[in-house]
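Objective 1b: paired records.
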Amino acid sequence: MKEAVLIAGVGKRFGEVQVLQEVTLSVGEGELFGFIGADGAGKTTLFRILATLLLPDEGRSEVLGLDVVRSYRDIRKRIGYMPGKFSLYPDLSVEENLRFFASVFGTTVEKNYELIRDIYSQLEPFKTRRAGKLSGGMKQKLALSCALVHRPEVLFLDEPTTGVDAVSRKEFWQMLGRLREQGMTILVSTPYMDEAVLCDRIAFMQEGRMLALDTPTGITTLFRKPLFAIRARETWRLLCALRASSHAASVYAFGSALHYTDNRPAVRADELLVALQADGFTEVSVSVIQPGIEDTFIALMEEKQGSDHV
């Protein structure tokens, strides 16, 4: 697969803070690639470097075979960038914003309408409404339309669904899926683990470093301990009891269950059940489960924090 984006040893510092540390990866043409991490992980800084809006302090990056420092003018004509914060003109109407961005890139809405039709058709009934008066989901659709109106070869989306309702999030990702089917390369950052499974590959980021890179299925193989789902009527007391246990490696709440790992390598579910019943827990169940992406991210993050303190 030909590379659409190359990142080699990229680092960035703001004052005394090292925001990115030796980030290295590549994204193939036509790939939907996700950067997963909490606020402060370095996702936005990396995207701004790739979009030629920031200069890296170390390493090099290429987009479509062009260096982001030397060839920034050429890159800007061939990419679409949607920042995390709504950055269109709030006093312009929906239609005026779209036509303005088309004109900036020397094209027209009509010329590339087929590319944005599925998205913009939902906005057309409100085309005379000021952009600042749109709902969160509609603002995101307008921002995506403006990022696509010149038919970019690579699309950068920085946390596009943050603050958007669940229905709009689902619709947004369905749109990305259709764009990917048309061969567009898409890089998207998100703090939402449930969106990670929708990507071809994902990179976990924490404090400016990459923790792991793989497919959504492959990345869960990095979880190294047996994982148990434990449920009981007294969930809070159960959580406190497990965290107080000298055998507990990790305990986190996931919906109605607690996800638990044990420091003993060969402990069984029935042993845990007997021990909890002996501690007075009733209506308790213990089962072995497969780790998910969020379980893996938490485990890798704790592993990194542990190694940093060694």
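Objective 1b, second protein:
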Amino acid sequence: MDVGTLMDNGEERTPELTTLQQKVEYMVEKTFPGEKISGRVFADLVKERGGSLSHSYFSNILAGKVTNPSEEILKALGLGFGVDWRFFKDESEVVDDVVAGLQFLAKRRTGEISGLAGRGIDDDGLDPELLQFVLSLLEDNKDGRDNGPEAAPGGQPG
């Protein structure tokens, strides 16, 4: 199942991530792009990172058979995917943060972003709204739209 879809301008639309199954499918697609990840491989990854999750339980999550796992299972999923475990909770506030972060990493991987310097950024990183704003600027720039001041040679405002 392709959980991310493209809009007409080529930008990825934020998928609807309401169920545990949708969230895990999204994370599999974004964390292991182009790979077929088995429950056994994922369970081994979780174990390597200090957690515990059976391969059959992971497979049941992907099949939609598990809808209300324990906090320990959610923490194991977070370890396996390298994200905040609260992403997998119902009504999670971190879903938008994780999706924006993954979109940012994808753009960095494809070369659309070559670097980012921030001033005054704390240990939590970029604020989700700021990260979304940066992504929108990149999309505008890619589409040839520049809503900012005219730039003189050297990149300085004119």
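The helical segments are 20-31, 39-48, 55-62, 71-81, 95-110, 128-142. Residues 1-7, 146-158 have pLDDT under 50 and may be disordered.
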